[in-house]
Specification:
Layout lengths: L5 E9 L6 H18 L3 H7 L7 E7 L5 H12 L4 E6 L3 H5 L8 H9 L2 E4 L17 H26 L2 E6 L10 H10 L4 E5 L6 E4 L7 H11 L4 H16 L9 H52 L4 H47 L22 H11 L12 H57 L7 H28 L1 H24 L3 H27 L8
């Protein structure tokens, strides 16, 4: 299994016409050799200088326009053989070619063919856009077309800035002639505090570095951990076989091409198995740790109370309390990283599971979209997002669905993805509803016993004719004080597992998936199939992101 590299994502912007590409190329190489490294903080530099199992390379985000875009992409790929290009297309390919001096420029198509990923920002040709081609004069339409092109270039530039680690600009220092020019993109990067390295197009082609917030390689730690994880071959082989059999040892998969099955087995499943095993391992450790914290809190209160009520064991009681508090502190110090590792590996596992179904049906998976409100959960630069993208880019480009395969693929997806997810969420809802009721029942029992104990103690204190022996009174005092602490622990355990919220989410998911199942059963067109696959994947991704955000906010903390 090849290690996943850590890629420094270089965004590009610059002029289309360059006078001295040889000198500019030398400056780009100088940036790669020295300037980008200087942007990293000391901790990152220390990590980068270690003998890592993770290769460090580059990914260039570029629209591949003439001039600066292509020069930077070509130079980076020549400098580092592991580097790659990710194309950001501002217009449809036919419209974009019209903006070149030579629409059939072989340089563009050569780089375009090497791209690991093409991100299309527009799917409708400008001439077919009703917003542009309304009933008006020919001059106005041409002006609207030109404005639409500029807005598309500006959108592409902003997208590049938002998704890169550092922006390299080849700029003459002059103001932009229209919106979306080099100056505009540099200024936008400055508002985002993104590191910008500017190469002047004027001799002596000086390099100017605007550090912004600088660079860090926090994602490298996660990728390194993932690469260094070793799974025993017997466990890995058994797990891989079980997952493969679940996917393809069924009547509905008989028509899936063997080449697709091989891609899943050889490229996706090795990483899926590693992520899934890691996620389960961390979950097995973390969840009981949280339960232990709340139980230790209740035990600490009960121990001290026993010591106060029965003085001969007071020292032992404080020893028990000390050990309980020490256990809580130890768990809180180490459990947080376990929780993060569990959540992030589970996120990666679910994305790879979805990718298996896309490969099986010869469909390109959508890239991971992260709504702004999901920034609490994860970002484009997080290690599991980078790892997923790297794995997906290793798969061959999907050829698309043939008409004679539509019904076979439809039946396969309904039976083995939609129904599987629907049953999963229905079963989870059933189990958590039952568990939640048990916790609620137990909590009420504790509450009522504590209430009765307190009531008896009040009656005994106010009534002169109602006396209790010392042992009974001590038991009532113990129950009145200790049981609320136990009740709080029960509530804490419920909140720790987020049983109620996940139960509700699972119910809603099963309902939504049922609606998608109905839509799949009615489809009769391969374009409709692809559209519904994207809808289904988006639903699964949003559910995964929502769960990730929810669980990341459930922290184990010591509040003094």
């Amino acid at each position: 299994m090849e290690p996943i590299p850590y890629r420094i994502r270089i965004g590009v912007t610059g002029h289309r016409v360059l006078d001295n590409e040889t000198e500019l190329k030398q400056q780009i190489i100088e940036i790669l050799k020295t300037e980008i490294t200087k942007l990293f903080d000391n901790n990152s530099l220390s990590l980068l200088n270690k003998n890592l199992a993770t290769p460090v390379t580059y990914s260039v985000l570029t629209p591949l326009a003439e001039g600066a875009d292509r020069l930077i992409a070509e130079t980076v790929m020549e400098y580092d053989a592991l580097s790659c290009v990710e194309v950001i297309l501002p217009l449809t390919l036919p419209d974009y070619k019209k903006t070149f001096n030579n629409p059939d420029d072989p340089e563009f198509f050569e780089l375009y063919a090497k791209a690991r990923h093409v991100r299309k920002l527009r799917y409708l040709d400008l001439e077919n856009d009703p917003k542009i081609n309304q009933n008006t004069s020919e001059t106005n339409i041409e002006n609207r077309l030109e404005k639409a092109r500029e807005e598309a270039f500006e959108k592409a530039g902003r997208h590049i800035v938002n998704h890169c680690d550092v922006l390299i600009a080849i700029w003459d220092g002059e103001k932009s002639q229209g919106i979306g020019g080099t100056q505009d993109i540099i200024e936008y990067a400055n508002t985002k505090n993104r590191p910008v390295i500017i190469i002047s197009t004027n001799p002596p082609y000086t390099i100017k570095v605007e550090k912004g917030y600088g660079l860090n390689c926090h994602a490298l730690k996660g990728i390194e951990r993932f690469n260094n994880t070793s799974i025993p071959s017997t466990v890995k082989d058994s797990y891989t076989k079980n997952m493969y059999d679940k996917l393809f040892q069924n009547p509905e998969s008989n028509y899936i091409p063997e080449s697709s099955k091989e891609i899943v087995r050889e490229i996706l499943l090795p990483y899926y198995v590693k992520a899934s095993i890691k996620a389960k391992k961390y979950q097995r450790i973390y969840m009981p740790s949280g339960i232990l914290i709340f139980l230790c809190s209740a035990i600490a209160v009960a121990a001290v109370l026993i010591g106060i009520l029965y003085h001969p064991v007071l020292l032992f009681s404080f020893l028990v309390e000390f050990l309980c508090l020490l256990t809580i502190l130890t768990i809180c110090l180490f459990a947080q990283q376990l929780r993060i590792n569990w959540l992030e590996n589970r996120f990666l596992t679910e994305r790879l599971r979805a990718a298996c179904y896309f490969i099986a049906t010869s469909t390109e998976i959508t890239s991971i979209e992260i709504p702004p409100y999901m920034g609490v959960a994860h970002k484009y630069s997080d290690w599991m997002v980078l790892v997923f993208n790297e794995i997906w880019y290793r798969t061959p480009k999907m050829e698309g669905i043939k008409d004679d395969m539509l019904n076979c693929f439809k039946d396969y997806i309904i039976k083995h993805w939609i129904d599987d997810q629907k049953n999963h969420h229905s079963e989870k809802h059933r189990k958590l509803t039952k568990l939640n009721k048990r916790f609620a029942y137990f909590g009420w029992v504790i509450y009522l016993i504590a209430l009765i104990a307190s009531g008896i103690h009040i009656v005994q204190s106010l009534s002169t004719g109602f006396e209790l022996d010392q042992l009974t009174e001590n038991i009532l005092i113990f129950l009145a004080i200790a049981l609320p602490a136990l009740g709080a622990a029960v509530v804490g355990i419920r909140k720790h597992g987020e049983y109620e919220r996940i139960e509700s989410r699972s119910y809603n998911m099963s309902e939504v998936i049922e609606d998608i199942s109905i839509d799949f059963n009615k489809l009769h067109d391969k374009n409709e199939f692809v559209s519904l696959m994207y809808d289904l994947d988006k639903l699964m991704l949003l559910e995964n992101q929502d769960w990730l955000m929810l669980m990341k906010l459930v922290k184990l903390e010591v509040n003094p």
